């Protein structure tokens, strides 16, 4: 990526930042090292776009653990983010966990998360104003071409063709 041979775009499903929640999700509980990883990746490749997905309102998630997630988001300054309110999935072990949160609280946390990310995305995009960007052409017609930057993935990053 730093050499320009691969598009500088990583999709890393962090899912949460708090070690206890990550452990409950049965994910590697190394969330505290993710900020270090992000900094290292960006030091090697400053034009790197990082995308991730998160879950808000996982069973047992406390307000303090959710605040930890928001603090992580602010510090990480990820470019593109999706967040889902936890919802039970048939057969999932998480369905049996204590501390199932009400639907409205899970959705409220998802909305708060996305509000923080909207502000981060706006700041990161503002930094690109006035710069030259390589554009990938998806469609070329007789009078119009449809293109996007390497930081934009159709139908994933909030837009579609």
Concise description?
This protein is of the alpha/beta class and 161 residues long. Helix content is 34%, strand content 17%. It starts with 8 loop residues before the first strand and ends in a 12-residue tail after the last strand.
Topology:
Elements: E1 9-11, H1 19-24, H2 34-44, E2 49-56, H3 63-76, E3 80-85, H4 103-126, E4 135-140, E5 145-149
Parallel strand pairs: 1-2, 2-3
Antiparallel strand pairs: 4-5
Helix pairs in contact: 3-4
Gyration radius (Cα, Å) is 18 Å
**Mean of the pLDDT scores?**
89
First and last CA, distance: 26 Å
- Count the helices. How many? 4
| Strand order within the widest beta sheet | 1-2-3
Percent helix:
25-40%
Strand and helix order? EHHEHEHEE
Main sheet properties: 3 strands, parallel
The backbone outline, from C-alpha atoms, is globular
Secondary structure class reads alpha/beta
Count of DSSP strands: 5
Uncertain stretches? none
In percent terms, what proportion of residues is strand? 15-25%
Question: Any descriptors?
Answer:
two-stranded antiparallel sheet, alpha/beta, 161 residues, globular
Your description of this structure?
With 161 residues, the protein is of the alpha/beta class. It has helices at residues 19-24, 34-44, 63-76, 103-126; strands at residues 9-11, 49-56, 80-85, 135-140, 145-149. A three-stranded parallel beta sheet has the order 1-2-3. It has a two-stranded antiparallel ribbon with strand order 4-5. Strand 4 and strand 5 form a beta hairpin. Helix 3 runs parallel beside helix 4 (103-126). The model has no long low-confidence stretch (mean pLDDT 89).
């Amino acid at each position: 990526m730093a050499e320009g041979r691969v598009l500088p775009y990583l999709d890393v499903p962090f899912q949460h930042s708090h070690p206890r929640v990550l452990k409950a999700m049965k994910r590697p509980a190394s969330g505290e090292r993710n900020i270090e990883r992000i900094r290292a990746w960006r030091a090697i490749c400053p034009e790197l776009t990082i995308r991730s997905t998160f879950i808000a309102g996982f069973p047992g998630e406390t307000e303090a653990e959710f605040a930890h997630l928001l603090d992580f988001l602010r510090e990480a300054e990820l470019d593109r983010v999706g967040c889902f309110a936890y919802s039970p999935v048939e057969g999932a072990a998480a369905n049996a966990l204590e501390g199932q949160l009400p639907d409205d609280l899970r959705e409220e946390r998802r909305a708060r998360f996305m509000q923080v990310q909207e502000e981060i995305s706006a700041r990161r995009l503002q930094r690109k104003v006035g710069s030259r960007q390589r554009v990938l052409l998806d469609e070329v017609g007789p009078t119009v071409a449809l293109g996007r930057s390497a930081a934009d993935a159709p139908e994933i990053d909030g837009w579609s063709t």
